[in-house]
Amino acid sequence: MTVYKAPVDEMRFVLNEVLGYEENVTSLKGYEDATTDLVHAILQEAARLCENELQPLNLTGDEEGCHYENGVVRTPGGFKEAYDMFVEGGWTGLANDPRYGGQGMPKVVGFAVEEMICSANMAFGMYPGLSHGAYNAIEKWADDDLKDLYLPKITAGEWSGTMCLTEPHCGTDLGLIRTKAHPHEDGSYTITGTKIFISAGEHDLTDNIIHLVLAKLPDAPPGVKGISLFLVPKFLPKSAGDDWAPGPRNGVRCGSIEKKMGIKASSTCVINLDNAKGWLVGEKHKGMRAMFSMMNAARLGVGIQGLGLAEVAYQNAVDYAKERVQGRSLIGVKYPAQAADPIIVHPDVRRMLLRQRAITEGARVLAYWTGMHLDISDRHGDETARAEADDFVALITPVVKAMFTDHGFDAANLAVQVYGGHGFIHEHGVEQFVRDARITQIYEGTNGVQALDLVGRKMPKAGGRLLRRFFHPMQEFLFANVTEKNMQEYCKPLMAAFGQLQQITLLLAQKGTNDPEEAGAAATEYLRFFGLVSVGWMWARMAKVALEKQPDDPTGFYADKLSVARFYMKKVLPETASLGISIKAGKKPITTMADAAF
Amino acid sequence: MTVYKAPVDEMRFVLNEVLGYEENVTSLKGYEDATTDLVHAILQEAARLCENELQPLNLTGDEEGCHYENGVVRTPGGFKEAYDMFVEGGWTGLANDPRYGGQGMPKVVGFAVEEMICSANMAFGMYPGLSHGAYNAIEKWADDDLKDLYLPKITAGEWSGTMCLTEPHCGTDLGLIRTKAHPHEDGSYTITGTKIFISAGEHDLTDNIIHLVLAKLPDAPPGVKGISLFLVPKFLPKSAGDDWAPGPRNGVRCGSIEKKMGIKASSTCVINLDNAKGWLVGEKHKGMRAMFSMMNAARLGVGIQGLGLAEVAYQNAVDYAKERVQGRSLIGVKYPAQAADPIIVHPDVRRMLLRQRAITEGARVLAYWTGMHLDISDRHGDETARAEADDFVALITPVVKAMFTDHGFDAANLAVQVYGGHGFIHEHGVEQFVRDARITQIYEGTNGVQALDLVGRKMPKAGGRLLRRFFHPMQEFLFANVTEKNMQEYCKPLMAAFGQLQQITLLLAQKGTNDPEEAGAAATEYLRFFGLVSVGWMWARMAKVALEKQPDDPTGFYADKLSVARFYMKKVLPETASLGISIKAGKKPITTMADAAF
Lengths: 598, 598
Prior knowledge:
By secondary structure, the first copy, chain A, is an alpha+beta fold. In chain A, 57% of the residues lie in helices and 12% in strands. Chain A has helices spanning 8-18, 21-25, 36-54, 56-64, 79-88, 107-141, 144-155, 287-323, 347-379, 383-419, 430-440, 447-458, 465-481, 488-514, 516-549, 557-572, 575-584, 588-591, and strands spanning 67-69, 72-74, 159-164, 180-183, 188-199, 208-215, 228-233, 235-237, 246-249, 252-257, 268-281. In chain A, the strands form three sheets. In chain A, strands 3, 4, 5, 6, 7, 10 and 11 form a seven-stranded mixed β-sheet that branches. In chain A, strand 1 (67-69) and strand 2 form a beta hairpin. At the A-B interface, helix 8, helix 9, helix 10, helix 11 and helix 12 of A face helix 8, helix 9, helix 10, helix 11 and helix 12 of B.
């Protein structure tokens, strides 16, 4: 069995001391009451729920999995009860609009709670997570009637949501979809087709399931420009008088569920739409735009899954490394009272633990900072500030998604490695982290697709404005701090890597304009480079805070923070050196060989 | 379902054209008849068996797993029949001594066949693999009576073998074992204790199972110097007159089997020894030495598991990348007759495939070359040549084990990534490669332990003789070839990396002498560096052959070889740059923080 203790103190450090939550968020319209005290209370409450209710169901949920019979999906034992508690606590509406019954908390607070859920039970988190994506898309794109009907139900957790995009023959390339929608005079549509890989597509947790379905209208232009988004409920709501209680069954059914490597407690469904009734969300043929509201939120959510798994993997690896006694330290007995030293004395074990921790803690700052930018983009009084925050989120989304999920998988594997043979055994629970983490590198756009998004769309966008807006404050920070003696060990390596990143960015921008394959060939390595520097920046910011507070800190919290910051600069950031060389090799080593020669 | 086609042509290229099999192996005593023609026939026969019999049982074996009931273990459906065919074909005795009924083939040929078995069905391969380890230990250390009784049965595949080392509280640190052996006047012993993680510890494939058990005698000195090795059969053989048919049940029973992340068709047993009768193998208290005969062979075998999994992962990823159509090439339509281009047109997909292939093909040369050195070490007429070959094997064993298994896992994950969402689905079979590969980085000494073996034992051994003997011919090769214009693109980057490796080796040797933690902190990165340079050397050797043969080759085989060689030099070898920086950072970033701060 695994353990999990929500890192509430660390979260408070990040929000309050590093990111200036009070100054940046409670100043936003509608968030005046979301004080640090309230946020702390929420985090503690969420911690209790995650530690006591969700985490104990993680291993059993994996063992039992979901069961399918005649179109009905049964979630693992305890999931329904846990979901009811989740709903009762108001967690389904934490960051939703009070107009629809939500608690109106800032998105960044939602991020912290999401992280805990993913650490405790990622598969469980899929159900409210998908609802959250559906909520976002409906809120942003649907007309008021649909919003007024569906958003309160989703916010209350009575109904859940899905994203129905993928079809058997198309995932990344949605231009190929075959699902058809036919318009009716009453403004509704009938939708027919088959969708696959639909998370939370069918289950027993809620009274109704609201599918957001991509389909093509008869007059659709070919390709992605001919896709529309539809809202398709499992049960058609009766009437306002019945408080929209679920009425007749709609023509949408689960045909089967997948047997998967991980997240086995999350149902992954084949969804058959057979003249299902639905309503248009957003404009005709503009479904991709609406879909990207879900997708971008979902991509950040997946990045947080990576973060959450990395955190819990670290916690368990540390526990095991302190408990497991085996051999002696290379430089003599360190724990003479025991038959052998705990394996945490070994440099190679510490290397693995520090690698988990250094990237996790840096990633957390970047993730929450992104959440804060979402709030600023939503609520800031100044239009320029909103636009800048938008740019930040657009740029960093693929980095958060890809880098954090790669890290989640890596951290999970490091936990297994620390456990040794015991890590390979199911009952110890860490191998499940590996299996659960594996999908995060794939869904909502594979990490390769994220990298292409970064170099192909975000980098050239608006003449490089997104990058400039990201790089400029980093440069300012570094220039302002590198002259301080105590900050040099953090700023200097980061400045060198940042300089190389800027150089490579220019190189790719130039080469990529003439030949998109040049950017494509470097994309994955470039994203990694970008991520390592970005997380490095977060570490430099943490180091600055830690240096200030360390003298008055009897607990050692800030001194340890500086130790981990040093590890990041000396043992993680240097990865950029190899990436730089490999990127500069260009596309030729990759593209020369004929397809048939593979 | 996955596919597998044994790469027989590639194996012949490696053996004959790169490694000079004819010259180096058929010249050895007893291998005169193991001609290239015979070897080719053997490889083709093995390919048929692996492709047609073992591979189809891989997915079903994973699904069904092993079943335990009342001490009895049932292997998955089809395994017994496949094992019988395996035995009938003589594969259990392929590289065993003809004196015991073996076919007396060179070990390097055994390596190639092992690779195929691991590609086709790694879990199946565990059963004969463990027997092979037991054979080696008995052949080398047991007295003639034991050899004459047990080796023919193991060679014939009638009986199988195990290695019983690990106990619940000790794996890496075998000095802690508690299993006890008591001597009797007839020269036998009774052994009592509990062993865990015993692969093939109980199953239904053979009539008897021969356990090689580490235990402590009453007069044992403490720690690893007090361990002895015992042969403990499941059934006590009757008598020579009965052709040693299995007689009374011995006091050794399987208490349970583990539920594991992967290799589910391989039984992993708790073995309870309760006054089990056994016989000493080798000298009293010298069990570790005998155990290392098994262990070293097993470590190379595990490295080959990594190689085999990487190969089959590559094959399936390529197949999928050619079949799956999705989107268009970044530089325009490449397959106009299709609705979309196959994903192999995308540079990032090709990057993944080439990474799999480049390390796999280079690793194969190094693996087979190691096998050849085993043969030389066994059979060469010249003592110096034998000693040199011994040094080679001792040095390279941890590298083969750790680097190849890391690659097997990486390659399996790249296959999943190429498959996208479909890779996460069980029935497609590639996620199984990931789960199966994961244990190879752990068992027979975790890869961290391999790294410590390299820097802590092999590097300082005999004043650095092992390293000098490895580095010297590499240096000679590079000096001899770097002046050739066509070889420069392969030799120059390799020379630079090799130069850095030598420098780092010196650094670690110096620092490590004063402070073993300095070597320990760098160990994993050093092993990786060493492996990348070693595999790079193999690529330079392949490039040399390919450059010679390319002009007369209408098939493109050699031209493609050069393409992959270039990829290795430009996109894989540069990883050494970061490793070098990280190694030079020393132990401080890793060892400073207090244990309690984790």
